[in-house]
Amino acid sequence: MPVGLFRVCLLVITAIVNHPLFFPKENGTVPESTEEIIQKMKEREESLRLEQLRLEQEIADQEATQKALEKAAVVVEESKEEKVRWDMWTALSMVIFLLIELWRQDFQEGNWQDIGGEEDDMAVLGKAFKGVAFPNKAVLASFYEKRILGTTGDMARMREMVEGFADDLLEALRSVCNRDADMEVEDCMGVGSMYENWRVRKPFVCDLIVPFAPPEPYCFRCQTWCSGDSFPPDEQGYGTIKVCRADEDTAGCICDKTKLGEDMLCLLHSQGGSTRPSSEMEDLLCFKNTQYLDADQVMKWFQIAVTKAWNRISHKYEFDLSFSLLDSPGALKIKFKSGKSIAFNLTPVVQYENSDVYFISHFPRSSLAADIPSSTHWFLTFAVYERRFIQLVSKTLPANACHVSCLQILSFLHGKQCSLTGPSGLTNYHLKTVLLHLLQARPSQDWAPEKLEARLQDMLKFLEKCLHEKKLYHFFIGNGNVPAELGFPIVFQRAEPLNLFRPFVLRRDIYRKMVDTFHEMLRNMSALINEYTVHIPLAHTNGIRKEPL
C-alpha cells in the first residue's frame, strides 16, 4: 500500500515538473517548429504541383507521339496500297509493251504482208493520191516499151566493156604494188542497178567493188554495231576494221583496252609485239596512232595505185582514163577520141568474215553515208545479197514478171522529178528497198505482167506509208525471213531493224523536201509518162479510164 501511494505521488510530481506552462522560455521554440513545418508543407505542395505538371506534359507528349505513330502507320499503309496499285499499273504497262513488241516483230517477220493484199486496203489510198490520175495498163505498156526496153541492150554491152577493162587495170595494179608491204587486191564484182537490170536513166554508170586484204602476217578483224558492243544510234549500220597480226589474240587481254602505266608491262605480250611503231601502222593505212583502218587513207592509196597501173597499160588503149568526181574517190571516166565517155565506179571494200557482206569506204553518188561519224567507221553494204535475192525470187515468178518494170518506171519518174525540182533525200536505193519488201510480202502470181498497174500502185502506197511514218526498214537487217539459200549471216538477221529514214527524223528540212518531191512526182506522173508514150490509136484510148486514185 505505501509503495503504491509513493508511485502515484512520483508520477504526479513528474507531470507537474514537465508541464510546458512552468517553463515558458524553454518551450518558446514550439511555434517556430510549426512555421517550418507549414513552410515545408507548402514547398512539398509546390513540388508536387510541378511534378503533376511534368507528368501531364509527359502524358501529352506520349499522346502526341502515339498520334504521330498512328498517322505514320496510316501513311505507310496508304503508300503500300499506292505501291500495290502502281505495281499493278507497271505490270499492266509491261504486258502491253510486250504485246506491242511481239506484234511489231511479227509485223516485221511477215504479218505485214497483208499490206496491199486485201482489196479493201488496195482501194483506200492516202491523201497524197487524191485527185491523181493514174495511167492505165495500155499507157504504161506503151511507155515501158518505148522508153525503157531499148536500154537493156546498151547496158549489157557497157557492162562487158567495163568489166574487161577493170580486170586488166587491177592486174596491172597488182604488178605495181609491193607484195610484201602493200594491200592485196582481189577480183572486182559488179553490183547495183546496172547488174540488177533496172537502171533506166543515162548516163549509165557501172558500180564495181574491189575486195582487198592486208599483207602477211597481218589480218583484218571486223567489228559491227550488232556484234555485242554498244554503238550510239547514229553509228548503227557502221563498223570498224582493226589491223592485227594473224598470230595476235587480244580478245582476252586488257593491255589493248586500257592504258597501262609506264612502269607496268603486259606479261602476255612482249614489248615489241604489243606496241608497234606509228609509222608501221600508217603504212598499213591506219588512222594516226591507232590500229583502225582509215577509209580516207585507203582511198588515197587506191587512187595512187590505180594511177600507177594505168600508166603501165595506157599504151594498149586508144582512150584516156581520169578521176571524174572529187567527192567520189573511186569514180573513173573513160574518154574516147570521138568525144564519147563511159563512167564507172571502182570502190575498195573489206570482206566481213567469210560472207558477202562488205565494209565499203565510200558510197558513190549516194547520201546513205553522207554523215559518217569518222574515217575509221565503215558502212556495210549488202549489195551482193540484194542482187542474189532478186535473182532467186525471179526464178519463182511468172514469165515476164513485172517486178523489175515497176522499179524501172518508179526510178524513171523519180529521176525526172528530181531534174525538175532538184535532188531530195529519197534515193533509188530506197525505191529498191520498197520493191524487196513487196517481193517478200506478195505471192508470186501477183507479179504477172498484166498486173503492172496494180503493183506500181502498191509501191507508191507503201512508199507513202513509209514517208508518213518516217520508217523504211533495211530489207536484210533484222529480217528473220531471209531465204536460207542465200547463206545470209545470222548475226544481221537477229539484229534490231535498221530504219533507213532515221537520218531524216531530226533533219526536218530534208524530210520536207523529200515529201514534197514525192507529192510533186505523183501530180506530174501522167504528164511525165505521156511525154514518152507513143500515140495510142483511138480504139485503145476509148477504153482508157483515168480515174483518180
From TrEMBL:
Compartments in which it is found: Cell membrane; Nucleus outer membrane
Transmembrane segments: none
Residue ranges the record marks as coiled coil: 38-72
UniProt topology in membrane: Single-pass type I membrane protein
Major localization listed first in the record, in broad terms: membrane
Pfam families cross-referenced by the UniProt entry: Mab-21_C (PF20266)
Assigned keywords, A-Z: Cell membrane, Coiled coil, Glycoprotein, Membrane, Nucleus, Signal, Transmembrane, Transmembrane helix
InterPro entries given in the database record: ITPRIP-like, Mab-21_HhH/H2TH-like, MAB21L/cGLR
Signal is among the record's keywords: yes
SMART domains attached to this UniProt entry: Mab-21
Function, in words: Enhances Ca(2+)-mediated inhibition of inositol 1,4,5-triphosphate receptor (ITPR) Ca(2+) release.
Protein name: Inositol 1,4,5-trisphosphate receptor-interacting protein
Organism (species): Tychaedon coryphoeus (Karoo scrub-robin)
